[in-house]
């Protein structure tokens, strides 16, 4: 059974097991071929700087902003695209569908530009490794290829890398729909000792009588307390004129009310929380008043300022959240407040005349690009030729 016959199958349950597996195998081959074509197009677009057509600096940022790929997936595609011209045997197997994108990524991780340069300096035969890797990829397991690729790194540096314990440090955090956060970390012995000492100090200094919670719960409290102490100290790096702080947006009537108010407040990272929790955070925090219009848009902060004040910046961040240039998701602490009509031309330093733009796109707008916010609150981005930059896959 061919892949093209899939649409003709009315009930997969009626197919023999062999046909189902053959159909699945054929689909994977087709996916591999498509992945190879995507990598080729990305490399061509990178070499011709096609992303500049939509005001972006790289194909990685274009894949993230316009096709909504994850940062990891966009990086994988670009990495593969840059490798394939240097490994013709692997590229051919990829194009015919017998090698997966994941296998290409394994090789790309060990044969980057700097690795190939070192191989050339040491007269290492990259073509021989290309042939060997391809043979393993088309006939053996994924893990076998991982093992084979290590041999290339060993040849380049037979003594192994200079030990650096910080290279093994990792910290990942994932936010869930309810705003809770989970994560994991890996630390070297010294880093781990420092963290354990700090957490243990907080645990031992704050053990109220009768606290019967688990050790894990106490340590989690200590970790949050460490963050509280550091934020309160006020000596963390400044982010665009504003010291790092926990931001919570809540209506005044909800803040002064007495009910729980589920889902009535939002944090700076977009997590929706209750009014009760917001009141708790505001109990020992700084409260900034931003007057909101009936459509939920922050109103002008009132006074005219040539230099954007922290109060105006907070209002712009509350409205825009991130860079408003099409296809860009740069966070607000990377961004600058842009005057839609420059103050030198009579433009007011006000919320209505402001937009949040990362440094690169702020420059783009001052060199011909244009942004505009429609009455519904949606930002639009236009190229210098006044054609609009639209995001999302091109359908039809």
UniProtKB/TrEMBL annotation:
The UniProt entry, under InterPro entries, shows:
DUF222 (IPR003870), HNH (IPR002711), HNH_nuc (IPR003615)
Q: Which SMART domains match?
A: HNHc (SM00507)
HNH nuclease domain segment(s): 311-363
- Domain of life of the native organism: Bacteria
Question: Which Gene Ontology molecular function entries are recorded, alphabetically?
Answer: endonuclease activity; nucleic acid binding; zinc ion binding
Keywords associated with the record: Endonuclease, Hydrolase, Nuclease
- One matching Pfam family: DUF222
Q: Which residues form a coiled coil?
A: none
Q: Which family does it belong to?
A: Belongs to the Rv1128c/1148c/1588c/1702c/1945/3466 family.
Q: What is this protein called?
A: HNH endonuclease
């Amino acid at each position: 059974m061919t892949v093209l016959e899939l649409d003709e199958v009315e009930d997969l349950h009626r197919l023999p097991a062999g046909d189902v597996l053959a159909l699945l195998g054929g689909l994977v081959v087709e996916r591999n071929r498509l992945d190879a074509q995507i990598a080729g197009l990305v490399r061509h677009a990178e070499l011709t700087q096609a992303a500049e057509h939509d005001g972006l600096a790289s194909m990685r940022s274009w894949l993230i902003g316009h096709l909504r790929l994850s940062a990891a997936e966009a990086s994988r595609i670009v990495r593969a695209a840059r490798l394939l011209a240097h490994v013709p045997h692997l590229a051919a197997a990829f194009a015919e569908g017998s090698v997966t994108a994941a296998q290409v990524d394994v090789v790309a991780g060990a044969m980057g530009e700097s690795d190939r340069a070192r191989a050339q300096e040491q007269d290492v035969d990259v073509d021989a490794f290309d042939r060997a890797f391809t043979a393993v990829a088309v006939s053996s397991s994924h893990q076998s290829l991982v093992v084979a690729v290590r041999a290339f790194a060993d040849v380049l540096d037979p003594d192994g890398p200079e030990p650096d314990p910080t290279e093994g440090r990792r910290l990942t955090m994932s936010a869930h729909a309810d705003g809770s956060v989970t994560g994991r970390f890996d630390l070297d012995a010294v880093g781990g000792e420092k963290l354990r000492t700090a957490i243990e100090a907080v645990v031992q200094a704050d053990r109220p009588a009768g606290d019967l919670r688990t050790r894990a719960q106490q340590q989690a409290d200590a970790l949050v307390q460490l963050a509280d102490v550091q934020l309160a100290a006020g000596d963390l790096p400044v982010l665009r004129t504003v010291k790092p702080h926990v931001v919570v947006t809540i209506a005044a009537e909800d803040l002064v009310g007495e009910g729980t108010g589920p889902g009535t407040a939002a944090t700076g990272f977009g997590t929706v929380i209750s009014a009760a929790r917001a009141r708790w955070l505001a109990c020992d925090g700084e409260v900034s008043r931003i007057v909101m219009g009936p459509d939920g848009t922050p109103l002008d902060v009132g006074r005219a300022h040539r230099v954007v004040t922290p109060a105006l910046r907070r209002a712009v961040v509350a409205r825009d959240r991130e860079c408003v240039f099409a296809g860009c998701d740069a966070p607000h602490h990377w961004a600058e407040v842009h005057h839609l009509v420059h103050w030198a031309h009579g433009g007011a330093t006000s919320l209505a005349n402001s937009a949040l733009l990362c440094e690169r796109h702020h420059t783009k707008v001052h060199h011909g690009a244009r942004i505009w916010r429609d009455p519904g609150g949606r930002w639009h981005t236009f190229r210098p030729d006044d054609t609009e930059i639209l995001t999302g896959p091109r359908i039809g």
